[in-house]
Amino acid sequence: MKFRETQVIVFANQKGGCGKTSSLVSTAAAFAASGYSVCVVDTDPQCDSTGNLGVDPDAMIRQRRYTLADAYLSKVPAAQIAVTPEDRFGGLISVVPGHRALSSVEIRLEREVFGLLVHNGISEDSMEELRHEHRFRLRASLDSLRGRFDVVLIDTPPNLGFLMTSALVAADWCVIPTFPSGYDLKALQVITRTVEKIRKSYNPGLSLAGVLLGNYDRKAILDKEIHVALCKRFTPALVFATTIGRSVRFRESTERGITIFEHPDAKEQAANCAALVKEMINRGAKGAFGATLNPFPGTELVEQVIDSGLEDVETVNG
Ligand SMILES: Nc1ncnc2c1ncn2[C@@H]1O[C@H](COP(=O)(O)OP(=O)(O)OP(=O)(O)O)[C@@H](O)[C@H]1O
Ligand SMILES: [Mg+2]
């Protein structure tokens, strides 16, 4: 173990196509390239990070192996679900594979609650207790990974439903990936509020690690202005100084099912992602990642940001 404790980091944003999976997979590869052990947990029924790391969810089912859906439906510990593609990343990246069945998990769990109401006549309070336990199932399952990996990275689907909630309940840190476009920036206020709500209601240990700007055009003045405005609005402590540059290499990697570190012509982009992970680790050395309890920016900053809205950012974006 390179960190004192396993760090569970969720990449969350209800906005679709804002770079959650690309940045998560690149971060996983960058951590592995620096010798950190990583487990990627895919809560998205689209299974993009699962596929990108070379795991086929249907093959898992054919081999009678578990997927993450079993963590929710049958309380299977994630350590029993994780697979390690030994031929990639020197075996340093494991995957808890997603499956399309994840999309029906919430309905199936709710059906159980109603079944108990109809057949056993359980009380409203008991129903709420059950729902509460369902929200904590992922967290309970991921407990089995603590102490086994340096970092656990959770990919999330593009909506604020049950799967996203359970991922935020399970994490220590939240990274919010965003692209420099108007729609993406509007989405920031919603996800920031959601993180705060989950922190208050279910997971006081959840901290915002930072907003991560991806698909960033280094030649565009507008993109630079958006980064500056984000830093001003969120404070630099809540925005990664490293941005992920716009490059067709990322799309090529997505198409080929490889990480940016495995792309033969993407040395510059891989170095960019390595710099991001270095920033995460350096911030960690200043107090994060196990050294103190609430080391990054502190939740009072998040509350200030929410109170003051995001007008500057929206103005820059026109
Ligand atoms: N830095 C970048 N430069 C160019 N293209 C990028 C960059 N980062 C991501 N992309 C591309 O943008 C698209 C969306 O990215 P990605 O799949 O990571 O988003 P997502 O938030 O995970 O989407 P979803 O919400 O559907 O899960 C992909 O085709 C990806 O290759
Ligand atoms: Mg995705």
Automatic annotation (TrEMBL):
SUPFAM superfamilies: P-loop containing nucleoside triphosphate hydrolases
InterPro entries: AAA_dom, DNA_Partitioning_ATPase, P-loop_NTPase
AAA domain ranges (all copies): 7-207
Classification via Pfam families: AAA_31
Domain of life (superkingdom): Bacteria
Name of this chain's protein: ParA family protein
Species classification: Bacteria, Pseudomonadati, Planctomycetota, Planctomycetia, Gemmatales
